[in-house]
Design brief:
The complex is a heterodimer of chains A (241) and B (232). With 241 residues, chain A is an alpha/beta fold. Chain A has helices spanning 41-48, 73-77, 95-105, 111-124, 140-152, 170-185, 197-203, 221-226, 231-240, and strands at residues 2-10, 16-25, 30-34, 56-61, 64-65, 80-83, 158-162, 189-193, 206-211, 214-219. Chain A is globular and about 50 Å long. By secondary structure, chain B is mostly helical. Chain B starts with a helix and ends in a 6-residue tail after the last helix. Classes of the chains: A alpha/beta (241), B mainly alpha (232). At the A-B interface, α2, β6, α3 and α5 of A face α6 and α7 of B.
């Protein structure tokens, strides 16, 4: 579904952030990326929907190379939902407007269809009563769940999560992870950058370990956590587990 | 000077229907300020958006240079000089009746330079994550600017923008330099007829003050309305 070929990213003339990454993410996979901070995992994720433009290499989505001049990136991003560490809800719009904005503006749905969709999605996360509230009236966990359904309203084929629980108070991490777990169970293709090892163990179909811009090890979670091969991964796991 | 206030008021406002001079002058002042504010906001927003976008695309650098030259020249020269250049050089052949519009244009172009910097600061005050969220949903650059960035930017810059409107409104009092009969010029005309400076000048000062207070009140109201989403 998403393929990267020899992906390289550096900011200006700075050090290389992504060093020749070739990766293939299949439909239905739940890929969880872990690694020390500064290892390039967020940058890798952001290269997948071209929020960061790769310095070199190719990014393919559903059979087409997308980092070519002339490609309508906006159209491709409709199919790749993204969830951010800082939620990035639109503060001047109500919860409902946050969800309906993109589908209606892009004329994918009528106002009525989008409204019904928003209602259904909000019911799912138990926030139907917050439809007309503004983001500033929500807790962190509620904000992040709204941000997830905002992306889901576009009916994406894949969801990218960039440290979705890192900015949350500890007691709110659970509600967000539970919802992500449900999504995973329903078959959503997911790429998740996170520090939540418990979630990774339960949900991932494949783990990636990144350090210094390279993927140093990848394996199913059982092997990844139970029998890590790379010494740097061993070191990393010994610190975070 | 203060010996016959009622008589002075009478000769300033009532005699020869002089109040009509003030009313007409006020209308001209409001017209010039109104056109200039609309023009200034339009030009300023365009310049600001151009500058913000040009920064991201190397090929558009020349646009940024043009915008910078505009801002530097306009902010670096006195508005009176700009007005005189506009009237006596650029529109030298225009008819007398066009003078108020030439003045409005000069003030609009002048205000645009200040508004541009205010709006640019406003756009940059909105968190980068807002743009990323919009774009990640598939919204175009233009939609993201219109629907997400601009509304938040306007909210942040409303006080600065209001300040600019007030300054602009008061600055129009110099249009007498190019023979436009605005409120200040009307007072000067009446003063020269009655040989009484006190009543006409205090009268128009109060008028300017009243209108500025009105603008401030309207802006405060707007600010409160835009602040709706801040409730916690």
């Amino acid at each position: 579904m998403i393929v990267t070929k020899n992906l390289v990213k550096r900011f200006g003339t700075g050090p290389i952030v992504l060093d020749d990454i070739s990766e293939n993410i299949e439909k239905g996979e739940k890929v969880v990326i872990v690694g020390p901070s500064g290892s390039g995992k967020s940058t890798f994720l952001r290269c997948l929907n071209l929020l960061e433009e790769p310095t070199a290499g190719e990014v393919w989505f559903e059979g087409n190379q997308i980092n070519l001049p002339g490609v309508d990136v906006d159209r491709i991003r409709r199919k790749m939902g993204m969830v951010f560490q800082q939620f990035n809800l639109f503060p001047h719009k109500t919860v409902r407007q946050n969800i309906t904005l993109a589908p209606t503006k892009l004329e994918i749905m009528t106002a009525e269809q989008a409204g019904d969709k928003a209602t259904a999605l909000l019911k799912r996360i138990g926030l139907a009563d917050k439809a007309d509230a503004y983001p500033s009236q929500l807790s962190g966990g509620q904000k992040q769940r709204v941000a997830i359904v905002r992306a889901l309203a576009m009916e994406p084929d894949v969801m990218l999560f960039d440290e979705p629980t890192s900015a949350l108070d500890p007691e709110m991490v659970g509600e967000v992870l539970d919802f992500m777990h449900t999504l995973a169970d329903e078959g959503m293709t997911m790429v998740v950058v996170t520090h939540e090892m418990g979630f990774a163990k339960e949900v991932a179909t494949r783990m990636l370990f990144m350090d210094q811009g390279k993927i140093l090890e990848q394996s199913p979670p059982k092997e990844f956590f139970g029998n890590p091969a790379n010494p740097r991964l061993k070191d990393f796991l010994s610190k975070v587990l | 000077m203060f010996n016959d206030i009622p008589g002075q008021i009478y000769s300033t406002l009532i005699l020869d229907n002089r109040w009509t001079l003030f009313v007409n002058g006020l209308l001209v002042t409001l017209m010039i300020a109104g056109i200039a504010i609309v023009l200034g906001v339009a030009i300023g927003s365009m310049v600001a958006i151009t500058k913000v976008n040009a920064r991201q695309h190397k090929r558009l650098r020349w646009l940024e240079v043009i915008c910078d030259i505009y801002i530097t020249v306009i902010r670096g020269t006195p508005i009176v000089v700009q007005l005189l250049i506009m009237y006596y050089i650029i529109f030298a052949t225009a008819s007398k009746g066009a003078a108020p519009y030439v003045a409005a244009l000069a003030f609009g172009i002048n205000s645009g330079a200040y508004v541009a910097e205010i709006v640019r600061a406003g756009i940059q005050s909105v968190d980068r994550g807002q743009t990323e969220a919009g774009r990640s949903l598939g919204l175009t650059n233009g939609m993201t600017m219109r629907e997400i960035i601009f509304p938040q930017a306007i909210k942040n810059i409303l006080p600065a923008l209001g300040n600019e409107f007030i300054v602009l409104f008061k600055e129009t009092s110099i249009v007498g330099y190019v023979a436009v009969m605005d409120l200040t010029r009307a007072a000067e005309l009446v003063r020269s007829r009655t040989y009484d400076a006190l009543i006409p000048l205090i009268f128009i000062a109060l008028l300017y003050l009243g209108i500025v207070m009105l603008i401030s009140w309207a802006l405060r109201k707007l600010e409160r309305r835009l602040g709706q989403s801040d409730v916690r």
